[in-house]
Amino acid sequence: MRDENCIFCKIANGEIPSSTVYEDDDFRVILDLGPASKGHALILPKQHYKDICEADMAVTGKILPLAAKIGSAMKKGLGASGFNVVQNNGTSAGQTVFHLHVHVIPRYENGPVMVAWNPGKAESRELEETAGILKNALAEELFTEEK
Ligand code: AMP
Ligand code: ZN
Description:
By secondary structure, the protein is an alpha+beta fold. Helix content is 33%, strand content 17%. The chain has four helices and five strands; from the N terminus they run H-E-E-E-H-H-E-E-H. Strands 1-2-3-5-4 form a five-stranded antiparallel beta sheet. Residues 3, 6, 8-9, 48, 99 line the site of zinc ion.
């Protein structure tokens, strides 16, 4: 499945050149053009999926193991001391390219500093109420998937 208007389809399938660090039948891993830190990589499935909800589990199941290898290579090769694996779904979550991709962002002792979320506060009653709502919605999702 490809989308003719999708830039990541073109990059993943080699029609547009990129700084490729890895390629196999399912993925191309490239360097981000606007890196958050040196070596910021993007895992691009060769198939077009808008986001993780649309994607085939046979493909998504391979992404975390691949991200782990890339992160380890960032430590060995680039001297990173850690790395983040980030995946945005939807505009409100910061997704700007609507072809599933996973960021692997190396982190270094000397920065750059990146903004994370500010931990909030929640009463236990609120946590329980939210957990109850989510639990029911998730059970429905899982049930629908099984059918
Ligand atoms: P997201 O905000 O999660 O959708 O991430 C999109 C990422 O793709 C951003 O970090 C961009 O810098 C990056 N990006 C956009 N176009 C290209 C491109 N042609 N080559 C490499 N990275 C790109
Ligand atoms: Zn695409």
